[in-house]
């Protein structure tokens, strides 16, 4: 990816042609209507391009993911008319790919162990740190000596792994949101419980599956520069186009939540709704262009 003006990396975006689209739910419960709307938009965009559409199960979070929700979510997608190509892949079956990516980053000197607790990170991040954005990790563990790392391990503090990305300026042209720029901090690629972090897994997966367009919620907009940095450092091809769609809101203008009443497909059907009508309602509530 070339650098843009004042940026270390810039992804201008391109026509994905017939490269696959995808939807990647986490099996932590029923999909709410906002999830389903995003899935519909991703599916329609791929099908309108004559492209394959993939479903990937993002069950990388071992503490929250539950196998029993996988088929429930797939059935909800089917009920609103979404079909896909091939069998859904599961992140929990792809750990070897993530380990290979970490080994590449390690070999290039881009990883370090972080022993900070969440409370310590919050406290440290509250202070200003030059060009880093508010709340960014300030690199507390970046230059620890081996003796200091050994002391923390002996105290029973399991480390997370962070990348040396602090200060990198990354931008991209989003198909819906326009130009986005972000200054990166040293973000986590493996959590201190041993689980691989979202940004690492999704980068490896989208590259491995040849995904050409990523359609997802606007709440993930700020994660994209981190992923673009990883694509570059890992020598992987990034998706041609990113489209971050607006979040679905309740009548009070706040993000859709349980307090807004019937927010799942099951609840809407139990209240007398028809899946086809619900699908058209979701399509009509937002535009992709």
Provide structural commentary:
- With 289 residues, the chain is of the alpha/beta class.
- The protein has one domain: HUPs (Rossmann fold).
- It is 33% helix and 16% strand.
- It has helices at 33-48, 68-79, 95-107, 118-125, 146-154, 198-208, 224-234, 265-270, 275-284; strands spanning 9-11, 21-23, 53-57, 89-90, 111-114, 160-163, 169-174, 178-183, 188-190, 213-217, 241-245.
- The strands form four sheets. Strands 1-7-8 form a three-stranded mixed β-sheet, with helices on one face. The chain has a three-stranded parallel β-sheet with strand order 2-3-4.
- Helix 7 (224-234) links the parallel strand 10 (213-217) and strand 11 (241-245).
- Helix 6 crosses helix 7 (224-234).
- The longest helix has 16 residues, at 33-48.
- The chain is globular and about 65 Å long.
- 36% of the residues are buried.
Could you outline the blueprint of secondary structure elements for this entry?
Layout: E1 9-11, E2 21-23, H1 33-48, E3 53-57, H2 68-79, E4 89-90, H3 95-107, E5 111-114, H4 118-125, H5 146-154, E6 160-163, E7 169-174, E8 178-183, E9 188-190, H6 198-208, E10 213-217, H7 224-234, E11 241-245, H8 265-270, H9 275-284
Parallel strand pairs: 1-7, 2-3, 3-4, 10-11
Antiparallel strand pairs: 5-6, 6-9, 7-8
Helix pairs in contact: 6-7
User: Tell me, what is the CATH class?
Assistant: Alpha Beta
**What is the CA-based Rg, rounded?**
20 Å
Give the overall shape, derived from the CA principal axes.
globular
Examine the secondary-structure arrangement and name the CATH architecture. 3-Layer(aba) Sandwich
User: In DSSP terms, counting alpha (H) and pi (I) runs of 4 or more, how many helices?
Assistant: 9
Number of separate structural domains: 1
Sheet with most strands: strand arrangement: 1-7-8
The CATH topology annotation reads as Rossmann fold
Give the % helix: 25-40%
**Through-space gap between termini:** 25 Å
Number of strands: 11
What structural category do the secondary elements indicate?
A: alpha/beta
Helices and strands, in order, run as: EEHEHEHEHHEEEEHEHEHH
Q: What does the largest sheet look like?
A: 3 strands, mixed
**Assigned CATH superfamily:** HUPs
Beta-strand content estimate: 15-25%
Mean pLDDT, to the nearest integer, reads: 91
The residue ranges in which pLDDT falls below 50 over 5 or more consecutive positions are none
């Amino acid at each position: 990816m070339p650098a843009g003006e004042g940026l270390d990396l810039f992804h201008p975006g391109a026509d994905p042609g017939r490269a696959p689209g995808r939807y990647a739910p986490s099996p932590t419960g029923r999909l709410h209507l906002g999830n389903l709307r995003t899935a519909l938009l991703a599916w329609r965009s791929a099908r309108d391009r004559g492209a394959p559409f993939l479903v990937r199960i993002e069950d990388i979070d071992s503490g929250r993911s539950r196998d029993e929700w996988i088929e429930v979510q797939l059935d909800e997608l089917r009920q609103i008319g979404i079909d896909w190509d091939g069998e859904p892949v599961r992140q929990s079956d792809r750990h070897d790919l993530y380990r290979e990516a970490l080994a590449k980053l390690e070999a290039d000197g881009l990883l370090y162990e972080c022993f900070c607790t969440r409370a310590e990170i919050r406290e440290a991040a509250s202070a200003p740190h030059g060009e880093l954005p508010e709340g960014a990790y300030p690199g507390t563990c970046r230059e620890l000596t081996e003796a200091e790392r050994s002391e923390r391990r002996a105290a029973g503090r399991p480390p997370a792994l962070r990348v040396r990305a602090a200060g990198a300026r990354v931008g991209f042209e989003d198909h819906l949101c326009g130009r986005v720029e972000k200054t990166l901090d040293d973000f986590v690629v493996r959590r201190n419980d041993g689980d691989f972090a979202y940004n690492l897994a999704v980068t490896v997966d989208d590259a491995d599956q040849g995904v050409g367009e990523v359609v997802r919620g606007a709440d993930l907009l700020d994660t994209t520069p981190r992923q673009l940095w990883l694509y570059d450092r890992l020598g992987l091809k990034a998706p041609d186009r990113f489209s971050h769609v607006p979040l679905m809101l309740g009548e009070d203008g706040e993000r859709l939540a349980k307090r807004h009443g019937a927010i799942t497909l099951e609840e809407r059907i139990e209240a007398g709704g028809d899946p086809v009508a619900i699908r058209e309602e979701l399509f009509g509530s937002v535009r992709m262009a």
